[in-house]
Design goal:
By secondary structure, this protein is α/β, with parallel strands linked by helices. It folds into 3 domains: 130 residues, Rossmann fold; 64 residues, Helicase, Ruva Protein, domain 3, CATH 1.10.8; 121 residues, Zinc Finger, Delta Prime, domain 3 (Up-down Bundle), CATH 1.20.272. The chain is 55% helix and 10% strand.
Length: 331
Amino acid sequence: MKLDYVQALKRVNEARGAWIIHGQEPLLEQNLLDTFRKAWQQQEVERQRYDISSVNDWKNVFNALNSLSLFSQQLAIEVHGNIKPDANGLKQLKSYIQHNEHNLLLIVLPKQDSSSLKSAFFQVVEANGVVVPLTATYPQDRQRILSIEADKLGIQLNNDAWQWLMQHHEHNLLAAKNSLMRVADTFPDIKQIQIEQLYACLQDQSRYTTYDLSDALLTGNLAQSVKIYQYLLAAGEPDSLILWTLSKEMRLLMQLFEQPQNALQLGIWKTKVSLYQQALRRLNPRQFLKWPELLLTIDAAIKGMSKENSEHLMLQAISELCGTTLFPSFS
């Protein structure tokens, strides 16, 4: 079964078996995961997380699904990564789906290309479970998603205000949500928001966004990239969103190196293809081998799972994307 983001939100409480969520919209992924985690907590479902860095890691996932702790009635396992099970893993996946009606395997993937969506892995889950593409391709999709966010804040926007907000933020759903939060805080007594209120509180909004960081990284401008990164930190941008931006650019560059003719299929905007191609010509592909490890290290540092300094590590990732190395441990 395939569900869109809004449909998936409504089915979180009844989710069982195997689900895949995939895409490159951080707001949708963040919201859906938060909704799942809240539901698990309320239902006293045991939650475990696994990060897949090799095919062998899937063995740990299936072992966990088959060994519920003495203190739990249900288990929810989050799997993060972009490595799919091998043939033996697919057999275990099919067996799990057929014989385990109470637990949930939630697989969180980045955006997938068309060949991946046709793979046996996706076919098994779509036939027996749920696949949720985290996309908002059309303006009406983005407005529908943001309307849910506005409802949470107890505000409504008139038609002109919606049009202004969508044009102001283009495709950046997370920035648009932040703007809704800001206008709700700035005008707590106004429930029907007009363009005037949006403009009044957004005209001095932060000069830089993660999109500006992406552009600076792709052009190899280290000084500008560091400046934008430091501004985002000072402005309170979540570390997880900055990491998502770094991870997205690293992943797209690695994928484009392997599939140089498939830029559009990989999700790179037509207007940005030349930027990615120029970045590849500037970078040494041998650097790519260390990137997955660096990203995992940053993620662990942000979550407090290591004593590493996440800000220093993100500066290292920024320098790597710009073609420089700050610390020899990741050279």
